[in-house]
Amino acid sequence: MAELRENKAKRKLQNGGVVTMLMGGAHPPDMIDYMGQFGFDSVLIEGEHGPVDYGHIPDLTRVCDLWGMTSVVRVGANRPEMIYRTFDLGAQGIMVPHINTREDGLAVVDACKFAPIGNRGMGAGRQAFGVPDYFQKANDETLVTVLIEDIAAMDHLDELTSVDHIDVFYVAPGDLAQSMGLIGQTTHPEVLRVIDEAIARIVANGKTAGALVNDATANDYIAKGARFLGIPWTPWVANGARNFLGNLHIP
Q1: Catalytic-labelled residue, pool 49, 98, 156, 188
Q2: Known catalytic residue at 156
Q3: What are phi and psi of 122, to 5 degrees?
């Protein structure tokens, strides 16, 4: 009898740790497989803005399983059929965009969790292969992440963070800046102020805050209380490429 795979990121958060999530751009299976050796806790599989479709999810999540990394799929909308189908195809975690109210959060939980917590459709899927007690254990191993990315969410943040069974409230700067009339200005002082306020309120309410970070800001956000860190890999490639080309001495 097989055991249900442990969700590394979820367990680490439950134990008070900081979770790293590799993200950004396309994630072909070979790239995830290569990056697995470095010890990231989780990988964001981009199903909202990226090329990932349902047919890609089994292989992408399967590669994450090889390295014990939590597969987190960002879906396109807060729709139950999108959410539970994504879990059925092998995702260990979900990231749902534009969650602004308590009602939005309750809908996410309802779609992510089997009864008695929610009403996730009774399909088992890939993570259930060989696990006879899957339905009894799945709720404990599904990571639920919601995106706080609209200024409207700030008016409802205390009520939203009162929703149980959401593991991470992730504050996303891009759409937040746009919703504030500061499109593309993710480092604008007012945007940064709102991000800091959101993180502080999430933490004060006893919940886990997430943030988009880079090499220069990661430790600052940890100090502010964020424990779920999204780290794009594309800037590392860009910096390496610029450094290489800039240091060439061509006669």
Answers
A1: 49
A2: no
A3: -80, 50
